Amino acid sequence: MPTPIVISCFDLTTTLVQPWAEAGYLCYCVDLQHPPGETREGNIIRVGIDVREWLPPYGPVAFAAFFPPCTDTAISGRAHFRRKGLGSVIKALQLFEWSARLAAWCQAPYFIENPVSTVSTYWRPPDFRFDPCDFAGYLPAERQLSEAYTKRTCLWTGGGFRLPEPKAVVPILGSKMHNMPDSKNRANLRSVTPAGFSRAVFESNCPVSMLAQQTS
Question: Which of 92, 126, 170, 192 has the least CB density, counted as fewest CB within 10 Å?
Answer without folding.
Answer: 170
